[in-house]
Design goal:
With 134 residues, the protein is an all-alpha fold. The protein has one domain. It is built from six helices and no strands. InterPro entries: Phage_holin_4_1.
Amino acid sequence: MLLDDHELLFNVFSMKDNLYVHLFIIAVIFDILTGNLRGILSNNYQKLDSSIGLKGLLKHIIVILILLTIYPYLTLLGFKPYANTIMGFYILNYSISVVENLGQLGIKLPHSIIKSLAKLSDQQEENNNDHQQH
C-alpha cells in the first residue's frame, strides 16, 4: 500500500483539532511543571542537578516526537482507534505522574488515590514511620 503524501500531510495538520493530542500535550506540560516544582521545593534543594532535569526534558521531547509522528501514520492506515488508545495510555501515564508530583509536594489527596499510587503510598509509610519514631 502506497501512502498518499497529501493525505498524510492532512492527517498531520488535523492533529491540531484532536482532543487526544491536546490532552497529551497538556499532561506533558503539567508533568514537567510539577516535576520541576517538586525538585525546587523538595528537601534536597541544595542537591538539584541540571543533568537530571535535562534527561527528563529530553525523554519528554522524544516521547512527544514519537507519538506525534506515529499518530498520523496510524490514522492514515485506518488504525485511528489504536492511535487514540496509545495516546490515551500516555495521557493516563503522565496524569499519574502529575498526581504523584502533587502528592510529593504535600498537596492533600484522597486516601484512595494515595493508596493506589506506589510512590505516594511509600512516602506516606515513611512519614508515618518518622512520626512514630519521634
